[in-house]
Amino acid sequence: MVSIQPMVHRKWLFLLTVMLLLFLPMRVGAEVPEAEELFQKLLESFQTVDFEGKLTLISPIPGGDTMCEALVIRKAPDKQRIEFTWPPEIRGTGMALNGKGRWHIRDRRDRERRLSPPPPRAMDEFLLLKNVQLLLQNYDVQVLDGGHVAGRSTYLLEIRPKATGRPSRKVWIDAEMGVILKMEHYNSQKRLEQLFAYSEINFKPEIDEADFRSPQEIQDRERPPKERGREELWNYNQGEPDVERIRKEAQLDIIFPDQAPAGFILQSIDVLKFGKLKNVHLKYTDGLAVLSVFQSSSDRRGPGRIPEGRPGAGRGDKPPWRGSSAEKISIDGIECEIISRGPMFIFRWNYRGIYFTLMGELGREEMAEIASSFVRKEG
Amino acid sequence: MRCSNFRKDLSAFLDDELDSRKRKQMELHISECAECRREAEKLQEMIGIIGAMERPEIPAQLWEGTRRRIEAVSELPTAKAPVLRMPRWVFAPAAAVVFALLLYLLGGQLFFHKYETGRIPIAVYVQEHALSYSEQVLPSNPLSELAIAQTEPVTEETLSDQGTSELDVLVEVHYGIYPTNGS
Q1: Looking at residue A104, which CATH number applies to its domain?
Q2: pLDDT in tens, B89-148
Q3: Residue in B114, B122, B173 closest to A272 by CB
Q4: Residue A27 and which of A43, A230, A272, B114 are 20 to 30 A apart at CA?
Q5: Which helix (H) or strand (E) holds B171?
Q6: Bridge partners, residue A359, by sequence
Q7: pLDDT on residue B121
Q8: Does a structural domain hold residue B102?
Q9: Mean pLDDT, to the nearest integer, of A238-253?
């Protein structure tokens, strides 16, 4: 005999489930902002939000995880200090910056030392907005309820590439303040490469200005920061690049592809002069991933020699890092060396008196296609 | 001797596994290079810490009790001895699970939270600073920055050292770190 009471319960349960399924997505959808709105909030937070927080960074690597913890102090719009609290070997070291420069708090030789200054703010803001547009063009961006991180309500930005072979991200953004509280970085093979998260964060910190006073300022407050060896020839703000002018100024017959790689824009062209090194740097972006193409005269290296190696005497021919692997392939008949390191591929080849170094975190096939576009152009 | 060669053989050097010629080369290098000396000291210290880790004392009665139980089982008539019947294929996975468990218990503390001094700071530096000072909306991949952080940021001083290559410089530039005069 079937009891009537359980049937009534099942009916109510069924109705409740249907109602939940119908209304829950609407409720969540109504609460989360649009992706553009969230990016805007993120960019505004750089300018306006002060905080102090404990940051944990974990990088899964073969054989174990790399992990560290740091205290981060930020005073908007341009001051920040990161001081490591764990592991003990690097406790007390870190980096700091203010509007004038950035420096090691204490490096491996126990000294404070200036690093290159940050780029000008005005260009950043313009390019950041442009890059948001690019990112939204090239990636599917979804905003979800991210739950709580460091005791704060968050929105979760899921950024997935529309094309294969590109990186993806998950970013948890403080719902009220717009600061990134947690991020997971996936490489072009969808493998988690890195995670960082704040375990504690205080948006009303008592900040000591002395934390942002650089050693140089102490010695000479008015001395302007020096940046050596970098000369900008062109950036995206200046409209179409004048190729001939750029070649003339660089004193190098730079090769440009017919088109930028799919989804990418050319963001800047710099000349790097440092010691005996001179390279022209073409920097491309799709809003998230970055591609660098370095070109230099291959004359100084001598014909037929493998050019990679240390500047000056004793050029080597092996990959420069532990864990790197190198192979040689042919791209449109040109011998090319590929160095693989983590998610990054580096392609190097000699062509028409120019030595190319292409680097980025795209898939190998797409990188090879991009390398090919620099060969075919003049072929 | 180059620093890279020294570091490759450092572990064997500290374990006294090198021949006398190689050992002399290492000793000469360590006396000349402060950076490698520090590296050696750190590794030596780590070896010391691991070596000094307490090993649990095994109570004497544990073995005594185990022995008694083995003897009790062996004294039972063979025909009546309890036999655990399992198919042969079970043993290999079971052994693998036990081995993995042992590996985790013994090696976990060594492999987890592994870090290398000098590699982390630039990773987090680029990660965090890129948020406000790069042309990118979101920071670029820090794992590659771990690679570039194997060497200190390039200066004219470090560039003249043997350990920094042109490619090191270009990778740093790719991530927005430009050479400075190191002042």
Answers
A1: 2.50.20.10
A2: 666 666 666 655 555 444 433 333 333 333 333 344 334 433 333 445 454 433 333 333
A3: B173
A4: A43
A5: helix B166-174
A6: A292, A346
A7: 36
A8: no
A9: 91
Residue A46: per-residue pLDDT: 78
Instruction: State the nearest Cα–Cα gap between A253 and chain B, in angstroms.
Output: 20
Name chain A contacts of B181, Cβ cutoff 8 Å.
226, 228
Residue B127 lies in a domain: yes
ipTM score here? 0.74
Per-residue pLDDT band for A317 (boundaries 50, 70, 90) equals: very low
A249 and A340 co-located in one domain: yes
To the nearest whole angstrom, how far is the Cα of A193 from the nearest Cα of chain B? 7
Model-level pTM? Answer: 0.63
Same domain flag for A244 and A371: yes
3-state secondary structure B99-140: HHHHHHHHHHHHHCCECCCCCHHHHHHHHHHHHHHCCCCCCC
The fraction of chain A above a pLDDT of 70, given in percent, is 72
Q: Which of B119, B160, B90 is nearest to A321 (CA)?
A: B119
Question: Structural domain of residue A169, as residue ranges?
Answer: 35-210
- Return the higher-pLDDT residue of A234 and A322: A234
* Structural domain contains residue B70: no
A367 domain-assigned: yes
CB contact under 8 A, B118 and A267: no
CATH code for the domain of A258: 3.30.200.100
Q: Which of B11, B36, B52 is the last residue of a domain?
A: B52
Per the structure block, which two tokens stand in for A10? 């099942």
Most confident of A58-62, A191-195, A284-288, B6-10: A284-288
Contacts with B146 from chain A: Cβ below 8 Å: 59, 61, 66, 342
Contact A59 B143 (CB under 8 A): yes
Using 50, 70 and 90 to split pLDDT, how confident is the model at A126?
A: low
B33 within domain boundaries: yes
Q: Are residues A62 and A108 in the same domain?
A: yes
Q: Are residues A160 and A81 in the same domain?
A: yes
Q: Give the residue from B17, B33, B52 where a domain finishes.
A: B52
Which residues of B are less than 8 Å from A63 in CB distance? 111, 114
| Count of domains forming chain B | 2
Q: Is A22 contained in some domain?
A: no
- Residue A29 within any structural domain of the chain: no
Residue A239 confidence (pLDDT) above 70:
yes
Q: What is the pLDDT of residue B183?
A: 37
Searching chain A, which residue's CA lies closest to the CA of residue B133? A118
What angle (nearest 5°) sits at the alpha carbon of residue B70, between those of residues B64 and B71?
90
As a whole number of angstroms, the distance between CA B62 and CA B67 comes to 9
Which residue range(s) make up the domain with B145?
Answer: 120-174
A219 in a structural domain: no
Helix (H, G, I), strand (E, B) or coil at A262: coil
What is the number of domains present in chain A? 2
Enumerate the residues of chain A whose CB falls inside 8 A of the CB of residue B167. Answer: 308, 320, 339, 346, 357
pLDDT at B60 over 50: yes
- Which of A67, A131, A357 lies nearest to residue B170, judging by beta carbons? A357
Shared-domain flag, residues A48 and A135: yes
Task: Could you list the beta-strand ranges (E) of chain A.
Answer: 51-61, 64-75, 79-86, 94-97, 102-106, 113-115, 139-149, 152-161, 168-174, 180-186, 192-202, 230-235, 265-274, 277-285, 290-297, 325-331, 334-341, 344-351, 354-360
